[in-house]
Write a structure and sequence with these properties.
alpha+beta; 13-stranded mixed sheet; about 20% helix; Aminopeptidase; 4-stranded antiparallel sheet; about 700 residues
Length: about 700
């Protein structure tokens, strides 16, 4: 993160850095508090919009200031007691209720504030409201007055107090917006974020000394170029700019790394994902400026998002940018933002998503701060909605942007937003040689990257490549032979082999038994209720053999990912009762889920109807060709009911992800003709794909046989 110059009385934008609130000021009990004007601290953690609105609009408050989970309020003590009592948790703070001597500070640790004798009234660990004398403020401001741009402690700012300020705000206390209608296939992209890969990249990047004035940062630049060049569809360039002389060092030429992914249809709509890759280390003259958190975490986050979107080509154009020169004054991002202005392309930028310090958390609270101005409110709202649907993050928002690579775009009227972990103001390794990968929390980073993937995917209009398209196959019972095809079109089998004993009455099954992304075959022996599963589509013995259920009982075998862990496991359907028995591992044992759904003697079907990653049940009534599909493995009514196919035709139901959007939809197989009728949505209508494959009289199977 960049350091900016402090000024006590100039209007420097406050960088609100959010962690848990700590109070240094002593409090008086309510009985001890003198009558008349008073200050109180009110706890507002997740109180919701209605209570938050009632608090801020109450006539009992003369003024208020909000910092994440707490609010400092002023008012007549009797009026405050009357309004707050029984409604909110609150406590009075010592001292006068006057605003004289109140200041906002940013990035001054509590120990420094207390060292000069000032009093912290409320703080989140980074942003504080303090009471101080002019002498104390001068001492505080002077603590780092001798620092130059190459030795900055951080974004330390002090500014005069202003009432009724929302320095930072919990998303949980906002008015709930209309729920965003996310494309169900986005879940697959979100799930593609690989935390271990992100961490391994971070470890590699931290082997470089990335001080912008040093020479090793050029090697880091080349490593980033090489990483982008391995990704399909990217055009990789570098942009030269000047880092001016400073700190006794001469001016140097440094480089942004820019990887562009052209949009498939909306080439003039641009979305930028950026992070600075330079680093500093104040405690040794930048000799070990390896910056794992600041900002290797954001840089390798850019790489991770680039991998996701190159695998899922977007409608709009995307740029993945790694900036240098951030710590010395945002020089890299200024250079790029200004180049857009100079080319007359500012209107093309629909969103800039900055990633700065996303891998540290000081506690179990995975909280993320989103920062923008009014021009980026739409980006913020979209991120809040995505975080609620796809992550476990607690979101805090601020409209006081500062000090990182989103700022130059905002300054030039382009919508931009910063995502940053909310504990970075207390990170012990900040701008030190101790900023190492070992300090990072993978889940913290993964959750933020998931939020960004979902938000951006919705905006760029990508149709995700999905987890793999499923295609047709048939099984010949008399010989135990599988014939598998890698496309849903007429033609010969791409793979044909025998597995099991022909003529033995086995029933074919298929699934991803080992979680490798490829579906392989298996057979079920009804006489003994035994499954024989193979991990490759080739001749050979079973890799997994298990008994599940009562042999000879007339059960129908099922296969699905019942717990959403990425591997398929077995299940059984009992026609006489309409009961489903599902097991979460391919080992002997009892059912993990048992429930009934629909009338008895239906034809069971299973699939991931909503793209959630979990397989759920359904039934097909052949007499009316009606499908009843449920989005959870629990008793209840159908979530989807549709008619598809001719009633009473005797066709067999078959379910699969026919268009690679991560959601499974209905299909029918006519064994009398060998024709397939597949539909790409679970709604009435004609078949989307119709073709013939295989001779007549065979049993259909489906799967992603080639993992594509």
């Amino acid at each position: 993160m960049l350091r900016i110059r402090r000024s006590v009385l100039t209007a420097v934008a406050l960088c609100t850095l959010l962690t848990h609130v700590a109070f240094a000021a002593p409090s008086l009990s309510r009985k001890e508090q003198p009558s008349g004007p008073a200050l109180a601290v009110v706890t507002i953690d997740k109180i919701g919009f209605d209570r938050w609105n009632a608090l801020t609009s109450s006539p009992a408050l003369a003024w208020w200031v909000e910092v994440d989970t707490h609010m400092l309020v002023s008012g007549d003590r009797a009026a405050l007691d009357s309004f707050l009592g029984g409604r909110f948790a609150y406590r009075y703070v010592d001292g006068t209720a006057s605003t004289e001597g109140l200041y906002f500070t940013n990035r001054f640790p509590a120990r420094e504030i207390e060292a000069v004798g000032a009093t912290i009234l409320i703080s989140d660990g980074g942003s504080s409201v303090i009471r101080a004398t002019p002498t104390q403020i001068s001492s505080l401001d002077g603590m780092h007055a001798g620092e130059h741009e190459e030795g900055c402690r951080g974004h330390a700012t002090i500014r005069p107090f202003q009432p009724n300020m929302q320095l930072s705000h919990q998303a949980a206390n906002s008015r709930v917006p209309a729920t965003a209608e996310f494309n169900i296939a986005i879940q697959g992209m979100v799930d593609s974020i690989n935390g271990q890969r992100w961490y391994a990249d971070n470890q590699t990047l931290t082997t470089y000394n990335r001080w912008s004035r040093g020479t090793d940062i050029l090697n880091a630049r080349d490593w980033l170029v090489a990483q982008f060049q391995t990704m399909p569809g990217l055009s990789v360039t570098t942009q030269a700019f000047t880092v001016p002389a400073g700190g006794g060092n001469p001016a140097v030429t440094r480089y942004n790394v820019i990887a562009t992914l052209p949009g498939t249809t909306r080439v003039n709509d641009w979305y930028i994902v950026g992070a600075h890759y330079d680093a500093i280390s104040n405690d040794n003259g930048h000799a070990t400026a390896t910056g794992a958190e600041d900002n290797g975490s954001g840089t390798t986050g850019v790489l991770e998002l680039a991998r996701i979107f190159t695998a899922n080509p977007p409608d709009a154009t995307m740029m993945f940018i790694c900036y240098a020169g951030e710590e010395q004054g945002l020089y890299g991002s200024i250079a790029h933002a200004q180049s857009i202005v100079s080319a007359g392309d500012t209107s093309k930028v629909k969103g800039m998503f900055n990633i700065d310090m996303i891998g540290y958390t000081g506690d179990a609270d995975l909280d993320c701060r989103l920062e923008t101005r009014a021009i980026g409110q739409g980006l913020m709202d979209a991120c809040v909605a995505a975080a609620a649907q796809y992550t476990t993050l607690r979101i805090v928002t601020s409209l006081s942007p500062c000090c990182s690579d989103h700022a130059p775009y905002l300054d030039r009227s382009m919508p931009a937003i910063l995502a940053i972990e909310n504990d970075y103001g207390t990170y012990p390794g900040y701008h030190h040689s101790s900023d190492l990968s070992i300090n990072l929390n993978i889940d913290m980073a993964v959750q933020i990257l998931k939020m960004y993937v979902a938000t951006i995917a919705q905006m760029v209009g990508t149709t995700p490549a999905g987890l793999g398209m499923e295609t047709a196959g048939v099984y010949l019972p008399s010989t135990g032979t599988f014939f598998l095809r890698n496309s849903n079109s007429p033609g010969g089998a791409d793979v044909a082999f025998q597995f099991g004993a022909g003529g033995a009455g086995f029933v074919p099954v298929s699934g991803d038994w080992n979680g490798d992304g490829v579906d392989t075959i298996g057979i079920y022996n009804p006489a003994t209720s035994t499954f024989f599963l193979r991990n490759t589509n080739s001749p050979g013995g079973a890799d997994v053999v298990l008994s599940f259920g009562a042999g000879g009982a007339g059960y129908v075998p099922l296969v699905g990912d019942w717990d959403g862990n990425g591997s398929d496991t077995v299940g059984l359907y009992q026609p006489t009762s309409g009961a489903f028995f599902l097991r979460n591992s391919n080992t002997p044992g009892g059912a993990d889920l048992v429930f009934t759904f629909g009338p008895p003697n239906a034809m069971p079907v299973v699939g991931d109807w909503d793209g959630s990653g979990t397989t759920t049940v359904g039934i097909f009534i052949s007499s009316s060709s009606t499908w009843f599909l449920r989005n959870s493995n629990a008793p209840g009514g159908a979530d989807i009911t549709l008619g598809y196919g001719p009633a009473g035709a005797g066709w067999m139901p078959i379910v699969g992800d026919w268009n690679n959007d991560n959601a499974q939809t209905v299909g029918l197989y006519d064994s009398a003709t060998g024709n397939w009728f597949l539909r790409n949505s679970n709604s009435p209508g004609p078949g989307t794909t119709v073709f013939g494959f295989g001779p007549t009289g065979l049993v259909p199977v489906r799967g992603d046989w080639n993992g594509l």
